[in-house]
Structure formats: C-alpha cells, structure tokens
Design a protein that fits this description.
By secondary structure, the chain is mainly α. It contains ten helices and no strands.
Length: 193
C-alpha cells in the first residue's frame, strides 16, 4: 500500500493491529502504533483495544494491565470490548481470580456482560475442569437474559473430564430445562470425548 503511494488510514492500521494481536506479535503491534503518528493518526479505543489484545494473547499481562490503567486513567473511554479482551486473556491464562475481579469491575462500571463475556468466564473454569462452577455460571448467564450460542455450549461441555462428569452435567442441564431455561443448542452426542 505504501509502495503504491497510498497513505494508510486508521482502518488499515486497525486491521494490521488485529492480525498482530491475534498472533501475539507485540513488538510489531507497538511499532505500528508508533508509525501511525508519522501519518498524523493517533490511537483511539479500537487501536488501544487491539494492543491490549496483543498483550493478552502473548501473555504480557503486566503490559496489558498497565495499558488498561492508562486507558481508564483518561487516555480514552474504555468500552465493553476492553473488558471482554481482559477477561478472555485472563481466562486463557488460567487466572481465575483475575477473571472474576475483572468481571465484577466491568459490572460495577455499568456494562452488561454479553455472550463473549460469559464464554470467556465459563471457559476459565472449564480449563480447570470445574464443571459445577461452569454449570452455575451458565445458569447465571441464562438468568441475566443472555442467550447462549454454540460456542458457549461447547465450552460448557468441555468442562467435564469423564463420563461420570458428563452424566452429572446432563442431569444439571435437565434440571435447568425443567426450571424453564433454554436448553443447550448442541446435542451431547456431538461432543468428542
């Protein structure tokens, strides 16, 4: 693009930053933000969330937390995506306490958790094979009015570690269904053991 004489827009930078974020390439993400200034472009919430995501994907939690504090301190107004990125990053890292404290901070700030939030939160406990906690969170999600999707269902079903746990999950889900909650959008037979 540059060689063809085009000046990259903020959207061009955002797309490239998203790719760096998903791959955890923090150095390139940071360099890209510095390059933006040469074009007179300054980071907005989307760019900063992209960098936050890069830090989270690469396991640079200290940098992620520092950027979050700077964002919250006035660089820009944090949004729902900011909290979802943080919760998802901690979830993948196995930091259950940080997942829960970030979730509570998000709710305290007036944001309503969406299906991405719940999937990340349930996923944190599923990785630790805490299926009872996962079922409790699933029920809490349903009670909050969030409709589950196939991804959150798969995450929930991944929380059991053996057939006995699977039977317990099915029983718990049957109880939820009997209580009037929406059944899973996935059939238990579709899950690989």
């Amino acid at each position: 693009m540059k060689h063809a004489g085009f000046v990259p827009s903020i959207k061009s930078h955002m797309l490239l930053l998203a790719a760096y974020g998903k791959s955890g390439n923090v150095k390139e993400a940071e360099n890209l933000i510095l390059q933006m200034e040469t074009y007179g472009l300054y980071p907005d919430i989307f760019i900063l969330n992209g960098l936050l995501n890069a830090y989270g994907h690469s396991g640079n939690y200290t940098q992620m937390e520092e950027l979050y504090r700077s964002m919250e301190g006035g660089i820009c107004q944090v949004d729902m995506a900011t909290y979802n990125i943080i919760i998802n990053s901690y979830s993948k890292g196995g930091y259950l306490n940080k997942v829960e404290s970030s979730f509570l901070r998000m709710v305290d700030r007036g944001f309503k958790p969406n299906v991405w939030t719940w999937t990340s939160r349930i996923g944190a406990f599923a990785r630790k094979r805490q299926f009872q906690k996962c079922i409790g969170l699933y029920k809490e999600m349903l009670e909050s009015g969030v409709i589950p999707d196939v991804v959150v269902d798969q995450v929930l079903l991944s929380s059991f570690s053996d057939l006995e746990d699977a039977e317990e999950v099915i029983k718990e889900l049957d109880n939820l269904y009997m209580d009037g909650y929406v059944p899973l959008s996935l059939e238990i037979g579709e899950v690989e053991n």
